[in-house]
Amino acid sequence: MLWSWRAPAGSTAVEGSSSCWRSVVTARTELPPELSGTDPAIASGGQALHASSGWCRSSNSLEAPASPAELEAPANSHVLESPANPDALEAVGPFPEPCPPFSPDTTTAPSLASASGPPVLIQQPAKLKARLKEVPSEPGCYLLRDGEDRILYIGKAKLLRNRVRSYFQSGGGHAHSPRIALMVRQVCEIEFIVTDSEAEALALESNLIKHHQPHFNVLLKDDKKYPYLCITWSEAYPRIFITRRRRFRSPLDRFYGPYVDVGLLRRTLAVVKRVFPLRQRPQPLYRDRTCLNYDIGRCPGVCQEKISSEAYHQGLRRVAMVFQGRNDELLELLRAQMERYAERLDFEAAARVRDQLQGLDALTADQKMSLGDSSVSRDVVALVSDGRVAAVQLFQMRAGKLVGRLGFTADAVGADGSALDPGRILQRVVEEHYSQVEPVEIPPELLLQHPLPQQELIGEWLQERRGRRMQLAVPQRQQKAELIELVERNAAYELQRAQRGAEQQHLATEDLAQLLDLAVPPRRIEGFDISHIQGSDAVASQVVFVDGLPAKQHYRRYRIQSSSIRAGHSDDFMAMAEIMRRRFRRWAQAKAEGADLAELRRAADTALHTGGLNDWPDVVMIDGGKGQLSAVMEALRELNLHEDLVVCSLAKQREEVFVPGAKQPLESEADQLGVQLLRRLRDEAHRFAVSYHRQQRGERMKRSRLGDIPGLGPKRVRDLLAHFRSIDAIQLASPEQIAEAPGVGPALARQVWEYFHPLQGAEDAEEGARSEPVE
């Protein structure tokens, strides 16, 4: 039975029991009346809580999604409102849906509790002291929430009380980084989940972080320059493709990687698609027939369902074995299948399997480098750090052969600003990587460059995930030590490459500071551009570079609202002035109310109450020449911000940089680093604006043709386009074919057809009137 307790200050904990954890004790501040008596449900999976699945609503029970890997869900759940009052024990009614995860890609950090919300705990010493007393000295996970019930941070601890208490202590070696200090000043609630062991807390923390994505969790950053291979197992006919954006659309989808050798990955996927018949397109090329890929044996005809979903999944599982490093196992499986076909005299099927074996032999010969000790499969992990960042390399060896390597970067500095121990960095890499892979991908041996702080605990956790014996070792001599040295040398090269990139960006910002006569190199640079076709679908873009690199979480798009800018009449100067007014309107209002902008800018990263004014740019760049720059400065004069902002423009023709008040462009070279940085910013703003303009134009064209048909609302328009794939296909379809679309009956289908064939529809109506009998 799972107990959830909203304990009043000063009360003691009451333990329930469960096969996965002892108790779930929730210490919360008072909630608003509309949230009183509710508590988000947490699902359980394997030895960890499966936070991504979510619980279903029911009257008095929690229903977890059925899965062989999941534990049996508790039969019911109760809430103990007050341990001193027996009448407060009552069954929970319908459970609320889980709170939506807080995305780490938001523009600003989570705001503090509003004036009407609950106060933060550090402002209530008595309440904070009572809350900390309620936290037990047991292993588990803790969740820190703000005034709007958003999760700020999720962590694990061997002793929950000591870990949570350390966040609210000052002095005596408890100095926090600005990030942690800002988080602590926003905590309004403390929740914790007690587990039976540290291994369960480790797995639980990983699942909760992946599901909720708390803003202040900065654990491990995958190196985004490396791609992944994705298999969309959630679809009836899964796709397999290469992507650099690791986003889970469904918990069933799988990502393999990241892969350092991009060329090898592309060649591997090309061979796999040539050897195995797989789905080749995201969308079918034709609505009612297969394409050429089916005729030449590259696709099993998934668009026309010429193969069942179960059979396609079975074949794709073999393909996944290639990217799991199980090539030898797959080769043995195919050889046995070929022999069975030959015994049944099905030589055509045996020949297809033979071709697959030959393709896999060529693939393994191309991608594998033989090393000694061919009887063991292992992973080898090592790192090199420069004191600020650590480059980590993980070599995957299967049957004594190197089949792939994965690259990561991790912070080498702790929350208190001190350098992290290499073993602690490696432990975070191991936790993050092996919590994402399938159990069959975990090898029986893991070689480490440094011992882990909790090596025994990590070994137990990996062994539980794998289901078989797992060995962690730190080799010191002979062949295994040489493997560590090999991985370490590769990590050193990756660190050098990362350092060169960071140094290049720093030199570019310094050069831009000299060009614009700034006291310090600019950190946040914003670029603006306009996109339209003769005034139609006019939009604008705002892109942001931080430390010389794109910060896409801060990008913004604008629709031009001025009624004077319309189809056939364009005015880039007016459009740019409008965007400046909208972008800096809040700052102008704050200045008019007497706020000190310089103080706001200094406090933007750490202040608690900035009113959302934490996006002040160090430099504003306009795509255009002197005309656009003059229009922007006129708008900023209206806002009384023309003396506060650093503004420049970049003209395309000669890549000239203009600043306000100067008749001539600045003395600069097109290939100097500062100008190159502005050019990258300008090109990114142009790309972002054009993509948004095309989106708006496409939606308008769809609306103009289908939205004008009486009886067709937005949902039926989407259903028609999903069914026919294009407006041209709708135009060529007969009324009977249109009626086959979901939600479209014969009468509406006839109406749609007559819209595209007005003359023929009028002739049919006239002929029908002549054929009617006259009374």
What does this structure look like?
The protein is α+β, with helices and mostly antiparallel strands. Helices cover 38% and strands 16% of the residues. It is built from 22 helices and 24 strands. Strands 4-3-1-2-7-5-6 form a seven-stranded mixed sheet. Strands 8, 12, 13, 14, 15, 16 and 17 form a seven-stranded mixed sheet that branches. Strands 18, 19, 20, 21, 22, 23 and 24 form a seven-stranded mixed sheet that branches. Helix 11 (455-466) links the parallel strand 16 (445-448) and strand 17. Mean pLDDT is 75; it is low at 1-116, 365-372 and 605-609.
Shape summary: globular
What integer value in Å does the Rg equal? 31 Å
- Trace the largest sheet across and list its strands: 4-3-1-2-7-5-6
Which percent bin holds the helix content?
25-40%
Poorly predicted spans:
1-116, 365-372, 605-609
Number of helices: 22
Give the biggest sheet: 7 strands, mixed
Q: What portion of residues belong to β-strands? A: 15-25%
**Head-to-tail CA distance between termini:** 80 Å
What average pLDDT do the residues reach?
Answer: 75
Q: How many E strands? A: 24
**SS-derived structural category:** alpha+beta
